[in-house]
């Protein structure tokens, strides 16, 4: 399926955004997030940005205080996912302007809308920033 | 408390009551109420609060219905937020879905394309197999929508239906082909997702699309797509990657299709920007594609170049990709590994777990009989060192697999299996234990009894050594007990009382484990039986006696029976015992008189005396069909579960009498197997239910291990194209004894490449030699010697060790010592590899990582006091990264301190390198002000909240 979940977690391990592309119960999510966040936060900057966890491969990237973690299947190109994270951050940056953790917290739904445009069924479907942001801007205008 | 807040009302409610109460006129009251309506309408906020509740791990199910209601709203923003919340809260089988389907249907017909998109998003998440028909016609209709965003999402909705239930959309698959030619690149790109899935299942039906995919890829690579798809100067890299994945599938094993791809893949190899991450991502995908399609020498060469660049990089990410790519390419061109041996060993020894595991994967794929010892040794060491059970299981089963396939000697095999069992015994498949027992019982297929005896006695010895250790896994103890029972006294080296004492200790030490106890008791019985059969007098040890007595009163009927059987056997005379318990007969076939003809006279006599004749059970009506009550096929997976399928109809062809054993092991009808132990059923030979088919060694399943057994492999380097078959095949080749003519050639080449390595520590070099020097082996197991040498040498004596190591790694090659080349290149080349590795890298990834702020740990502590330390931090960081101007991010604007003179100069100096998107203090200030206005002051807690993510 490709991407199985996308998480944003801050340095303290608090979840800031979570999107799953397969159903997990609340308990499973909580356990999973705890385990992988602990794993990823313990790594240093020289180490790979990839971590194996059970059947997932986690690709993560840190921006300031915020970690972006993407859980993928085995067949996925890790380096491309790493750049996908960057594309996501660039897109949010274009929308919010100097995006910071607080922007995502205050506009959680917008961050989700962007993800909805970029990823469907666990596949990357849109990578043009203009195409991603148009619906969101139109919605802003309408309301 | 009085009337104020006594009922736990919120402040807002109190305010409302208060203001209504104090209203002086109707007009004022109206104003208040209107304001209240506005407040109440802001439900969106409440829903998002609910999302937070769920996200942070608490149950918000009480509010789901409100999210559902919100999807009915007319406002687009509210509707979409409602859909978002619903998709986050509900899974596709939730009861509330039924309430949403109607709304979705309505919204799919909306004039506003954004509403349609919102509904399609929900379709992708919420529609399950049953509800597909409700929306399918509309989704198909939307494939022709005028807005590309809608077409794209409609395609993805179909994709989702395909994932859920392929049969429901099988008739619509042609739509995917059509949409591949959509005018909009976004729709085309999205269509690649379902096509990839379809092609992965059945590539042959899509061979006609190869040309289209190739031409699309060509156009993308030539920048024909709109600029907005560019990412870091790469034209639509994500689409390129997906296309390459598809081509890899289509070209696999298809020469004609592959030939169409060579040009475009070659172009991409040339065009890719190798300094950016995304460029490397595309290059990596190219390598995957090249190693999957029909091989092309030129492309393979390009791929090898990229791999060596990856491996030489300082970035761990690139090394990781390099190792992965190497393990793919190695299937096609095995010789490529040799030039990278040191890089591989570096990765193997890297403290980074991820990299290490990836390297183990590579080693696993390149294992052959010449290097199996080194590799499995390493794997086991690693296995012991980790705690992660999931990975431990995986690596243990890999060790077992490799050991079974390539074991160079019986002794080594036993030792290896001991280690695996000792450290991961309960994690490996129980089949493995049975394989091991059977191997010990049957020997290794050579008609050499002494070798078999040696094997057994070495196994017995090693087990007697291990047996006292605490915390042995249950599966391992079973093996130990079985082997001690069968062969403990065989060599005459150990007395019966010694063995039985040990067995009693096991049973006592694991008193809670019935399986182990059962194995121990049966082993005891065997030891005594062999003693009696040999004519010796049996003195049962007192502890043994008490154990048997205890077990004969056990709650487990199985243990009870074993105990009683033992007591019975001990009282028999030598002749009877020998028949019941023949020595070393675990591999003998047991003949079963299925008709029980020896009972005929008894039956006749009974019939004459007026007994009822026997009616075969399938002729009896109203009786439970107990056919197959026991099958020899005892699956590990079969458990005591309920059966939901109907009982099978009586088989008339089944053997009519006495415990009919189904010959065809049917997986559906796995009977509930009681925990039975192979040893027991075998030795109590009078039990008639032992099946006569298949399992001669009663459930010890070996699955052709025998066949896999082989002498050291001579991998023939010439067979580059045919080599992509599995390891088994490679080993199969060895069995047919490829003559060693090809080895001399390989030896030369490997020798050359080895002499080219620089000074790197001799330790590593030896490891490399033992891992990669494989093809040049002529003797049996020379690598083990080299390995041992490698272990014992100290790196201090490097110079003298160097050549010796190489020499020892290629034992048996006399001519090699005469090679005049050898020492000089070793010395001359010393510098080269070190230079490359320590060269200042222009690694893009490092630069990106440099964006991260190393000072955060301190800054989080106390914001107020930070300004001084902060400035210092910036300076220190600045000096840390003198070459990288991008470290300016660290100079994150700290808005409250804008007046601080220290900070600003720091900023401006670091910022000089001036890249477009620097941190903007004013922006951050504004944001801060805004937030403060709203009454949020997170400053003291978490200043990071304001930090720009992108510097």
Q: Distance between termini of chain B?
A: 53 Å
- CATH top-level class of chain A: Alpha Beta
Beta-sheet strand percentage of chain A?
A: 25-35%
Physical arrangement of strands within the biggest beta sheet of chain A: 2-1-5-4-3
Mean pLDDT of chain B: 74
In one word, what is the shape of chain B? extended
- Unreliable spans of chain A are none
How many helical elements of chain A? 5
N-to-C order of helices and strands of chain A: EEHEEEHHHEEH
Poorly predicted runs of chain B are: 625-638, 658-758, 774-918
Please name the CATH architecture of chain A: 2-Layer Sandwich
Total of helices of chain B: 47
Class of secondary structure makeup of chain A: alpha+beta
Whole-number total of structural domains of chain A: 1
For the residues shown, what is the average pLDDT of chain A?
A: 93
Question: What fraction of residues of chain B sit in β-strands?
Answer: under 5%
Tell me the radius of gyration of chain A: 15 Å
Q: What's the alpha carbon Rg of chain B, rounded to whole Å?
A: 37 Å
Q: What portion of residues of chain B is helical? A: 55-70%
Label the structural class of chain B: mainly alpha
For this structure, the quaternary state is heterodimer
